[in-house]
Every structure is written in C-alpha cells, then in structure tokens.
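Sequence, structure tokens reproduced for absentees:
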Amino acid sequence: MMAAQRFPAEFDGIVAGAPAFRLTRAAIAQIWDTQAFLRAAPRDAEGRPVLAAAFSEGDLRLVAESVLRACDAADGLADGSVDAIAACRFEPASLRCAGEKAGACLAPAQVEALARAFGGARDGQGRALYSGWNWDAGIAAPGWRAWKLGTSQTAVPNARNTTLGPPALGYYFLTPPEPELDPLRFDFGRDPPRTVQTEAINDPTSTMLSTFVARGGRMLVYHGNSDPVFSTQDLVAWWQELARDNGGAAALAGWARLFLVPGMTHCGGGPALDDFDPLAAIEAWVERGEAPDRLAARGAAFPGRSRPLCPWPLEARHAGGGDAQEAGSFACRPPGLP
C-alpha cells in the first residue's frame, strides 16, 4: 500500500496481505486491549494480574461456539465458518454468568473486557481512536491468543501486544520518544496526539492513487476476519473511502479488489481456508486482464473443503445445489441476499 501511494510508477501489480496500513493507531489499540484484558485477569500471590489467565482456552472456545451459533447459518449453511460477516450480530453479555463463574458462562469482568476490546480504542470523550473488531470463530485460535493474551502463567506477559506494542509506541510512534513507556499508564485522552508526527510519515492512508491507476496498476488486498492485531473493520472503512474518492465502487473494482477471509488470524491460521494464491491472481489480472472475481481457497482447518473468497462486499453463498464441500457450489453475492 505504501508502494502504491508513494512509488506508483514502480509496480504494475501489488498484493497487500493483512496490511498494517494504520500502524500508528493499531499500536494504540494494542495498549487499549491489554488494559481491557488485564482488568479481567486474576492476580498472583503478589497481587499482580496474569494477562494470559484473563480467559482460559475453554472461555475462548465458549465465545467462538457462541459466535458460530449466532452467525454461522446467516449465509444459509451452518458449516463452522462465518461467511456472512456483515450480518453477524453477537453480544458478549449473552454469556454473562447469572451466579458464580462456570464453564458455560463468563464472569462479568470478562464480558466487560470483551465488549471494551471489541468496541475499539477511544479517547477521553469517547471518540474512536481505532476501529472495532469483527466477531468471528478465530477468537479461539492460537494465533488470536498469541497477540492478545499470550501463554505466560506469570505476571510477566508474553502476548505480542505487550512485547511488541509498548516498545514500538515508546521508541518510535511517540514524539518525543518515551523509551520507558508504561503501557498501563498510557492516557487515551492525553497521549494519542503525540503519535501524529510519526503517523504522517509512516501510515499509507491516502486515497489518492491517480498515478497508479493511470498507469494501469492493479491492487489485490486480503485480510483475515479474525486478525487480532489489524482490524478488518478499519480496512473496510478505508476501502469505502477509496471508492468514494475514485469514482465509486464499480470504478474501484476495475483496478483494486479486497478479499476478506473468514476465520483467518494474522496472515494465516485459525478456523479458516487460508490456502489461496493471490500472486497468481494478480499476475492474471496484470498480464492477461483477468480480474479476480473469486479466489479458490482451501485449508487444513477444514480438510476436503474448498470455497471461493469473494471480493468485498460480496460474500460466499451456497447456490442451493451440488456438494457443499466444493467451491463450485457457491456463488459470490451481496450481503443479505440468499
């Protein structure tokens, strides 16, 4: 995305996977999520919160299974995958324990932590600093835990949001730098303006790609709906701006297409069909003019299954006949259509 915006004459085709294009704000969101989950974390003998223990494996499976019950069949087929992501409506409050914490429910602090994290980072006036997140089955995947919670059973966390986020924010994103940044003391009302200098040179958020388009450039972007570090909601919001500033959705589809992958965490993994070939697709588009109307996808999470990944906002729908395990039995249709 940086290449398309700042070096538009250098490339005929670009594939951007799980793009960290608003990295400055995503770094703030990492701190927001860590603070939210620490509020639900049990404490060790010295009174320090243990981040990884905020949610057990069983807790996350409960959330994933509940999301599937709420959203899986919205595409007309209950198959362990949330393909109709636009129609997915899930409230973590539905899992709140009526009494003591048990395996089939979540403690109030856990419900609050999920609602706070998935609602997205906000400043002191409640204004969004980063987007919210999609509810998807990948929340129970190892890749989601690795970023948000980690596995350390001590008060020294190993989640990537804590090992990568605070140093990046303190050393690089803040102006002036704050090498000893304490993520628990980051003030979301006071501190975010300190990132604007780095944001101006680091984040490729421009929607003016006229030179790239005029040269016949083509861009294919893909992103997992369960990515725990960069939100698909943020990318979709930018994509809508891209369409608005470039002649509308139909005109944009002539040179750029976005593919969202149900269940996929960051760059791969999760309950997803994460084996697909965007490079072959961009080659066909650039060299032969064959625009990618779908990407054929498979994955170890669902052996023997194939599905089309559809260009956003289209979603895969079973066409009503044929083998439900075969991509040829599916059509790419607008949200809300059977």
User: Anything to note?
Assistant: Residues 23-201 form one domain. Residues 80 and 253 are 29 Å apart (CA to CA). The two ends are 34 Å apart (CA to CA). The chain has twelve helices and seven strands.
